Amino acid sequence: MSKLQRKPLISLCMIVKNEAGNLSRCLTSVRGVADELIIVDTGSTDDTVAVARSFGAAIVSFPWTGDFAAARNAGLEQARGTWILVLDADEELDAGSKGELLLCAEHVEYEAFFVRIHNHKGTERSSPVITVNPILRMFRNRPPYRFSGIIHEQVAAAIVEATPAAAMHLSTVSVHHYGYADGVVAKKDKISRNLSLLKEQLKLNPRDAFHQFNTAVEYMRLGDYARALEHIKQSLAEAEPDTSYTHLLYKYEIRCRIMSGDPAGAMDACIRGCALFPDYPDLHHIRGVLLLQAGAFAGAREAFRQALLIGLSPPGYHTESGMGTYLTYAALGQLCQETGETEEAIVCYTRAAQLHPVPSSLLARLVRTMKCAGRGPELAGWLEDHLPQMTADRLRLAGLLLADGCFAAATEAVAGGAEAVESLARGGMEAVSERSGRGAGMASECLGSGEEIVSECLGSGGEIVGGCWASLLQLLLQAGDTPAELLKHQDIMVLLGHPAAGALDYGPPSAAPSVRSGHAWRLLADGALASLTAADDYGPAAARARLMLPLPRLGE
Fold first, then answer.
1. CB of 433 within 8 A of CB of 446?
2. What sign does the dihedral 523-360-416-448 (CA atoms) show?
3. What Cα–Cα distance (Å) separates residue 222 from each residue in 189, 260, 369, 414?
4. pLDDT at 521 over 90
5. Integer Cα distance of 23 and 28 in angstroms
6. What region, left, alpha or beta, does residue 416 occupy, with left being phi > 0 and alpha being psi -120 to 50 degrees?
7. Based on the number of CB atoms within 10 Å of its own CB, is 58 exposed (0-12), middle (13-18) or buried (19 or more)?
8. Going by fewer Cβ within 10 Å, which terminus of the chain is more open, N or C?
9. DSSP state for residue 154 in the 8-state scheme
10. Does the pLDDT at position 456 exceed 70?
11. Is residue 11 within 8 Å of residue 34, measured between CB atoms?
């Protein structure tokens, strides 16, 4: 049976201009899904058209008139499929969503489908997801279904007008978007372009809630929160109760009031939003943060737990990655630290790190919390049991533990036991001796002779660096666990400051190793604060200060 007989035909419709660098990734992602590619080019001067033709796309030349809807509709006029799929060049369909999208296309009882747009911080799939937005992107190919709006063009209104009983489905199809990654917005001057077009729209219809909303978003991106708040208020006044983005209006009102120094107004907006959208985890999380900042710990705890109870945001909401999951667990961990519930804080930070796609910062917070709670000796085992993915790179993990003064845990992490440490240490000393041209009996002198020889060892490759790490950790165990004793070893200080030691990031690379070891001063401060914990007058403040010292970071 042919492909056209097996399922309804899907036409991918796009508008592009100078997208040669992105288009190939997008078109590759829809292979096996889109049966027809319609590319509307609005005046590219690069290889965009050639790239599109290499995929067999039909090209529609459409001179740019400042009207996104007109360009979209020019492509729809050429489409022959049962379904229209809309993507932009800086997007790609998730490979794991192809099957679901094809299944959606079989359900002709629906008129349209929403997909989940994952907005990335970077330009690669591996970059963190900042927000997830449900947007209507696939709909039946019917003549009345056409886009409107010169900017942030929409088709939903036309569908509802033509088919009042139209059924629309919130799918879990994922599309990755990179157009608002760091640097991309500035490069394309999107904010200035968007504001100009939105102002034109508002001249035609100043009571348009959707364009008021989008204007507010652009002013927020510019950092002009006062103007953004004005447009949010107007949008809330004009929007229908069931408008799909109303929950975002409350969220953005909260953000604008926070940034404008109005925490009371932000809390009021948060309460109103939570009442209207009780299953929206983002609002409960933000309410918890506001209450935590105000010292209302009981209310903050309840808000965080409500967000965690909801978990991942339901499909109809625009959400920020981590709210209701790892960000909320981390915030609850901070609250538990504030209230002296250290064991609960450790559990929360551990769970947050388990859920976070890039948990390095949370790992550092967990290490600090356990160390300050007197549970440093348990660290290596705890991480092995609860975060095994973070223990694979033992040298890097040892670097983090060592930089925060957890010497015994660093030793265990780097070698997995005393016997292995001794073996690595012997190998490291032999390598150092060979590198420096000295005999085996001079190995100890080599390790203790100061900056010059240790720096030379570090420059000799990963194998010798690993040996130096093991030897260093062995020396630390012999010296003891206090920062004051650590500082007696100049060679240790050099190694801590060297970029090869655990890929830690401290200070400018151009600085001398001894100067760049600013974290050594943090260890010194940590030792001084730890010595005060037994004093009644200063103990609580010292314990709090230890937790607030700058955290070391694993190289990412």
1. yes
2. negative
3. 12, 14, 37, 46
4. no
5. 8
6. left
7. middle
8. N
9. B
10. no
11. yes
Q: Determine the straight-line distance between the first and last CA of the chain, rounded to whole angstroms.
A: 49
Which two three-digit tokens encode residue 550? 């700058």
Beta bridge mates, 112: 139, 168
**CA–CA dist 314, 247 (Å, integer):** 12
The answer to whether 145 and 151 have CB atoms below 8 angstroms apart is: no
DSSP 356-383: -SSTHHHHHHHHHHHHHTT-GGGHHHHH
Question: Which residue type does 192 have?
Answer: S
- Give CA–CA dist 58/77, Å, rounded: 12
pLDDT, average across residues 209-224: 95
Bridge partners of 133?
Answer: 117
Element (H, E) at 176: strand 168-177
Q: How many CA atoms lie within 13 A of 120 on its CB side?
A: 18
Q: CA 244 to CA 95: how far, in whole Å?
A: 27
Please, where are the H alpha helices in 459-517? 462-479, 483-486, 490-497, 513-516
* Phi-psi region at 168: left, alpha or beta (left = phi > 0; alpha = psi -120 to 50): beta
Q: What is the DSSP letter of 1?
A: -
Q: Supply 203's token pair.
A: 């001249």
- pLDDT over threshold 70, residue 437: no
pLDDT of residue 183: 58
* pLDDT tops 50 at residue 459: no
Q: Is 556 helix (H, G, I), strand (E, B) or coil?
A: coil
Burial state string for 261-282 with b = 16 or more CB within 10 A and e = fewer than 16 = ebeebbbebbeebbeebeebbb
- Per-residue pLDDT, 503: 35
More confident residue, 290 or 509: 290
Q: What separation in angstroms does the CA of 390 have from each of 132, 358, 362, 374, 395?
A: 26, 10, 11, 22, 11
Per-residue pLDDT, averaged over 19-33, amounts to 97
Q: What's 49-95 look like in SS3?
A: HHHHHHCCCEEEECCCCCCHHHHHHHHHCCCCCCEEEECCCCEEECH
CB contact set of 128 (below 8 Å; sequence gap of 6+): 120, 121, 122, 321, 357, 358
- Burial class of residue 252 in the structure, from the number of CB atoms within 10 Å of its CB (0-12 exposed, 13-18 middle, 19+ buried): buried
In the predicted model, is pLDDT for residue 420 greater than 50?
no
Q: Residue 447: how many CB atoms within 10 A of its CB?
A: 25
Please tell me the predicted confidence (pLDDT) of residue 163.
Answer: 97
Residue 95, CA distances (Å) to 100, 118, 420 in order: 10, 14, 43
| Confidence (pLDDT) at 542 | 80
Q: Is the pLDDT of residue 67 over 80?
A: yes
For residue 537, the 8-state DSSP code is: T
